[in-house]
Amino acid sequence: MGTGTYSPAWPHGELTPFLEELWYVMGTNRVHHAGVDLQTSRTMLVVRDGERLTLVNTVRLDDDGLRALDALGTVRDVVRLGAFHGRDDPFYRERYGARLWAAPGSAHVDGSVEDQALVERGELPIAGARAILFQSARHPEAALLLERAGGVLVTCDAVQSWASVDRFFSAATGATFEAAGLIRPAHVPNTWLEACAPDASDFERLLALPFRHLVSAHGAPLLDDAHERLTEDVRQTFASR
Q: Tens digits of per-residue pLDDT, 49-95?
């Protein structure tokens, strides 16, 4: 994928610190799905270890955003957690020479392969982190547990966390998502369930982990009571299936 074919830098917010050596930025996501144009938000996590930066669930930044990113450290790694994300990974791989980590079987938009596979109990670019794979999902999906600040669970599509319709949604998509019950913190969305058909056991494995906070690719970070909220959502979700 050449420079002229990267996904554009759509409107986004600022890099915002929120826990020790963690930043997030929310931006725009536009897709055409089932004959409908959708515009939602998506969230990138930046993790700093010394001077090394790891980007999780990438969102392409504009020039001002890239200058702010470079002021934090040096981007060395990109982690892709979801099968339906990754459109901005090639931009960061080429700009920084970053290694790409992804769940085995992930198909990348530029036809490349990941540099490193995400493996449970395997190597990761983030100190004090572990990967959790959704073993029963039809499409590759993973989560991370960061062992800091009481535990930070990092997810992509399997657990979303829109507490409200934010400014990066279009009005039409926001109304549609609210009506569909998708605007909820720490939520397992039926859209991902229908696409990936996971077993409840994958979520039981997540809930066995010690975490207080959640950072999803969709929504702002949920602090302090993420485990309790996700526990209740999983209970409701799988009780009705």
A: 999 999 999 999 999 999 999 999 999 999 999 988 989 999 999 99
Angstrom distances, CA of residue 30 to CA of 59, 87, 163, 178, 234 = 12, 11, 19, 17, 28
Coil, strand or helix at 219:
coil
Per-residue pLDDT tens for 160-183?
A: 999 999 999 999 999 999 999 999
Q: How is residue 121 written in tokens?
A: 């109990």
Tokens of 110: 């530029």
As assigned by CATH, the class of the 3-239 domain is alpha beta
Mean pLDDT, rounded, for 132-157:
96
Q: Residue 21's CB: how many other CB atoms inside 10 A?
A: 18
User: Can you give the residue ranges of every domain in the chain?
Assistant: 3-239
Rounded to whole angstroms, the Cα distance separating 101 from 83 reads 12
The token pair that represents 58 in the structure block: 């990438």
Q: CA 142, CA 102: separation in Å to the nearest integer? A: 8
Those residues with Cβ within 8 angstroms of residue 73's Cβ, 6 or more apart along the chain or in another chain: 48, 50, 51, 52, 53
For residue 48, pLDDT beyond 80: yes
Residue with the larger pLDDT of the pair 109 and 121:
121
Structure tokens at 68: 């702010």
Nearest to 143 by CA among 128, 127, 151, 132: 132
Provide the residue type at 184 as one letter: R
